[in-house]
Every structure is written in structure tokens, then in C-alpha cells.
DNA sequence: CAACTGGAAATATCG
DNA sequence: CGCGATATTTCCAGT
């Protein structure tokens, strides 16, 4: 076994060892026993560096600070940048990193099976320092995780949400050009995955300085991986306990409930987050202030200890030692974090010149998006970025922009049991068809591109990297798709080539899902999400398309939610979609819920919660048993308790199989009956809408009109639809309200969606279709042609519930999916370059009506609107600013 | 034998 | 603090 020595250095001359000053070292060792092992050891280099990851994404790999490696990490480490051969000798490369310009690639997998990727790894190296690790550094036997699992413990830094500041940097022509090249793959043959070769990129290993004394290498085994606890009280280790000790400061279950309810999200929602959120700007300051500055003499680890301790950990720090006693093995291994970074040639020159905007100390333990970020950048952000600044993974991006569209043509199965690090791989995510998910980029066929994939959240908020799951690269004979792993701010990202010869389509047969232990992640500083019952994920895909301007267009598409826990998959009811998402306060309409694990005694509970998260009202929908089937439940919507509401009231409902076997809550609206009885004619309705819009009324007006739309005589709507759309013709890309309406309200066309839109998907007309999808997917409006939609839904007119072919046919799904009803969807008509300037007056709603299936018998359940709420939400947010 | 899988025991957390 | 119900992790055995 090779050993690497840790090394730390200061980047800045004469400066004290502020956390950010610490040089970052990536230590990797090669475990010969395992052939594919190198133990990455990473210590935060410096804050700048850490931040840099977010600063520049394109050229700069976002870094992750600690990386617990199981065998996988090493994989990439070795092979990707250097190739296995280059690793004959374990080495540590010390790299001075341009603070602002490194996107950190954590690891590249060395997979033996990815020959084509070899070239990919041939990246210019620089400033490498090879060091040996001590034999004890890694215990091969303790590495249960065969795959490329990364121990959760290594994911100490919560960098996932770091916001890139690079977008504010000045352009550098050379940078742009070079960076642009980086996003494409040169020759598919030689570098299917975006070879560095084509990219003027350097991959370097960063060695985080570590206190050599007593850190256990996370690499040892998942169980031994370093956690914040370890940091707090490193001690010589003996043997890891058979089971992880329980983490301190865990959130309570009740919190989880709230979280899931969607009313309160500990994350990304500073406005609603009651508690301190490390990711929120709120805590940043406090952290900064509270954290003692590391003494110059302190090792980086020490620095980390001093400053990077999660609040909750600190609060219960007393417990740590006790727990650690039995839990960790501490030897010479230090925090392992392998993070090869890809540097642009221009990085040093260009990036180093960039002012370091973020406070390094903040960065050290708070890779937390600022409030600003949350509100302005998280979602609906322009997909156009400077080449030097790819969007952070937690930025919501549209799936379509102009001629380009990234789409999940074949969705994965809604259940996939993730594997733990202590387990072997559980294989790649499969599609319903038995094959694998397929992703396609349309509108671009010029050069090979890299398709990035990571595991994202599937809650009711925008898609972001999932803290408790990571993508796991699957290799083997059954895998035909080349791929490689990188790590971007704590998130493993799989890069898969999109080749013109394949019609820019990729079959995702190389992606499994790794589950990280809740206790590990929850202790991570800045982490506010809870793991308990947070078992749904999505596959998130991104592609960065170089533009002639030198900038890059980034698109993102996410899959349907995937339930990853064994138990949940077997027991919990899961709502995939439902027929209608609103009803008058009188109730009475039938709601068809499609999903899985529905039982004969399943109930549908409607409830309303207040700001405080408390349930104010609850009612059970009356099940229409005769219409229920295995994959769907039909209930009669209960009347709302207050019949006199003046505006829509948002409630929730969930399917319940028992006391705690509930599906995730779904959104539902109760609407006033005011306009309902008026039974407006098409013209009236349109006129009303037009007038309202023309007068620039607020959301409430829009909502009222929307309501009226929803409840007007359905036949009228049907008529309207027919008049505006030829039979059987859908025009997803053609935003139209009604022909007459368009004439009457020309303003609509001028409307622009606020960049702060929380519904990035709004840029994707196709996502505005059909039934409301489960709540966790709706906000993003990812294209969701539900493949799993049961073909045998008798309750609805056959035409309205079209079984989705589950063939691997790209692009067939979405179009096969008939659009029903009317859909008002905000569309992004122009990319917003300056999100901050958004203002209600600037924005407009591209309102369209997608009409399909004119022959459908328009029953209430067939009508639906899932977008206006989003519009309202968007505007509300924007106005609140 | 390694990679998957399915099942379930062991251990944790919640109320 | 104990207990039952749940949820999470780890193990085991069969393909």
C-alpha cells in the first residue's frame, strides 16, 4: 500500500493561517490490494479555493473539501487524471489553486472499462507533489464499498450550495474560448467524456493540509470515515463500532414531517425556514463571527475543527468524544479528500486576478447560498453563462432554451433501492421498460458534449443536489455507456458523452445510486436537510452547450422522482400524478390519483396547514371504490371548511395506507365559487382575462381569472380549445392562449418571466401539461412524461389518459403524451441576464394554452392547470423583493 | 468470483 | 424511562 504524506502549505505569503489560507492537499494512496485505490485526502486548502469551485464552474471544478473515499474515489483519482499507470506511485500533488477559478473535479474514475476515457484524463498537470501515505492509511479490508462510493463522512463541507460568483467576473476572451472548448468533447473516440485534452484544463490533486497526528482516513471504510465528530475529537482509533453512533443534534421526526409537507423547508427557503439555516445568509455571519480564527500554527484540520463544526455538533460536542471513542479509528490517515481539479490554462492568470469576493471563512464551513442566491439565482436563472462560470448544481435551469432542449426521453423506474457504502452496488437505475433511462439533447449536433448527471432532490422545491444520495458509477460488461465521475462541491457528478453520431442521445446505464448515512450527512456543517424519510431523488442531467459568443448555455432536465429506500418502496403509497389540482370550495369533484402501493384501505386526506406548519383543517376524501384500481385511487374531493374564501386557498392531500404510511403531500387548491356559477362564455372569459392583464392587475386578479377558467363550463373550455387547436394537434411550443385572446392582449407577448422564477421549468412548455405531477416534481416542472402511467385507468376517458409507451424511443414520450385541458404557463421569452432587475412590471406571462385531444370528453378531472400557481409564486417572490 | 438482488435482522429514532 | 411502531443500516443468501 502506498502512502501519501500530507502536506500543507500556505498560499498567501505572510498571511496567517486563516482557514482560507490553508493550502489544499489532496492525498491519495493506492491500495494495491484493491488495485483501484487511492485514498484521497483532502483538507480544505483555503477558503478561496473552496469557493472557487463555485466561482467558476466551467473551468473550475467545484471542490469538495473532504472526501471520504471508498474505493471509488480513488478510482477516479488515479485514473482520471493520471490514468492508472501514472499512479504506480502514490503521490500527492500540491497545487496552488487559483482561488476563484477552479471548478474542482473531485475524482475521476479509473475504471478499467472505460478505455475511451483514458485520454480524457490526460490533462496537464501542474505543481504536483507526490507523497507517500502510511500503510495504515487505508485498510483495504474495511472498504466494503465495491463501487465508487464515497463515504458520506468525507462530505464534510457543505459546498453544494455555494454560489458561484464567477458570473460577475469580467470576460476574458481567451478564457472564454478555451473554456468553451471544454464543454465539448473532442473526438468521441478518443475522449467520449470530454477529454481534458480537448480542454485546456489541468487536473491537479489538491492536498489538503491535515493534521497528521490523528486523523482517520475516511477512506478506511464507510464506518471509519471522518465526520465532523471526528474532527472535533480525533482520537486513536480502534475499531469502528459495528454501527454508526447516532448523530447528535438530529432533527426530529416532526421536523421531517413539516419538511415534507412542503410548508417548511429547512433548506433554501430562508424566508420560511424557522430555524437557523447554515445555508442561509443568516447563519453565515454568525458562523463567521463565532468561529475563532485559526491560529497560524494550526493545521488545516485544526482550523477546520475550530471553525467548521456544525452548530448542532457544537451544541452537543460533549457527546462526541464518547461516540468517537468507539467509532473511529484515527491514525495517520487524515481526512481524505481527493480532488483533482481541472484548471484552465488561463486560470492562474485570469482567475488569480479575480477578486475574491466571498469571505473565505464563510466558505470554510458555509458553502451556503446566500439569501441573495436563494432568491435570485436558485431558479429560473438564465441558462446562459460565461464559460468560466458554469452554474452551481443547485441552480435551477430550464430544460429548454431556444432551439435546444435537454430531455429525459425515457424515465427511470420510480423505485430504485439505493445501496449503502457497506453494501455492494445494487446496479444501475433502470427504466420501466427494463432498459435504462435515456436522455437526449435536441437542437445541437455539432460536437460531442458532456452530459452531466447527479442525484438531485425530489421534494417540492427546486431540484438541487441531494445531500443523502450520490450517483454511483456502474461499470461492467453490462454497461455500454462510457462515463466518468467528477465531484463538484460535494456532489458526485457522472459525465457521459453525448455524441452526434448517437443523435446526442445517451442511455444512462452506468448510474447507480449510493445512499449516505443520515447521521453522517446531518452532521455536516451547514447541512439542514434531514435524511429521515427523505428518500426520494431524481436523476438530474445537465449539458453545457458552447455558444458562438463564447458563452455557454446550460440546460438541465430532471427525471421523475425515484423512491430509493427499500422499505418505502415496498410500503409507502406514492403519488405520481393526479387528475386535477383544484376544485371549488364545494368539493364534490372526483380526484383520480395515480401512483403505486395503494391499498384497498388507502385514504386520501386533505389538509390545510398554517404558516406555523400546524394543521388547521383536515378532511378525508370519500373513496370511490368501484373506480379504484391497483395504481389509482379515486376520491370525491371534500368540501373546504370555508365556503367564502375570496381567493384560492392552497391545501394539501396525501394518500395514507396507515398511520405513518403516507405519500408525500401534494398540492391542491380550493377556489372561490364566485365566478364559477357565472359560467362564462369563452369570450367573456378571455375578455376578462385580457382586461385584467391589460390593466396590469396583480396576481390575485390573474388567479381569479384562472379560477374562472378552471370552473367555467367545461364544454366552453373544450370549445375554446377546439377553436384554437386543430384536432389532435398539440402545440407545446406555441404559447397561445386563444387566438382571440392573443389579439386582445398583445401585452402578453411582451411579458417576460421574472428571472427569479421559481419554476425554471416554465421555460419548457412541454412540462406544462397533463396532470399535476406529484408535488415534489411540480415546482420544477421537469418534463414528466410519465412512463409509468398505468395504461389501464378506466376512470378517465381513455383519450385523456394515454398510456405512455415505454419504449426506448427518444422523444416519443412527450409527444405521445397528450396534453389536456388548458394550461397557463409562464414562459421565458427572453433570457434574463440581470436577475436583480426583475420587477413585476418587467415581467410578463407568456400565457399559452396547450390543447390537445379536442375529442376528450372534458370532465372536470380532465382539466387542469398546474402552472398559474407557479406564476403567482414567481411574481410574488419577485414583488417581495 | 464479482456484481446484483431480495429479504430481513439489527439498530435507531419517534411519539 | 420503557415500549411499540417506524425508519435506517447492515447482513446474508441466492442469482
From TrEMBL:
Keyword Ribosomal protein: no
Superkingdom, taxonomy of origin: Eukaryota
Alphabetical keyword list: Cytoplasm, DNA-binding, Nucleus, Phosphoprotein, Repeat, Transcription, Transcription regulation
Record has Cytoplasm as a keyword: yes
Domain RHD positions: 388-569
GO cellular component: cytoplasm; nucleus
Main location: cytoplasm
One function term, GO molecular function aspect: DNA-binding transcription factor activity
Subcellular localization: Cytoplasm; Nucleus
Comp. bias regions, Polar residues: 212-230
PROSITE patterns the UniProt entry points to: REL_2 (PS50254)
Xref: Pfam families: RHD_dimer, RHD_DNA_bind
UniProt-annotated stretches for the region Disordered: 212-252, 267-288
Protein name, as recorded: Nuclear factor of activated T-cells, cytoplasmic 3 isoform X1
Provenance organism: Xenopus tropicalis
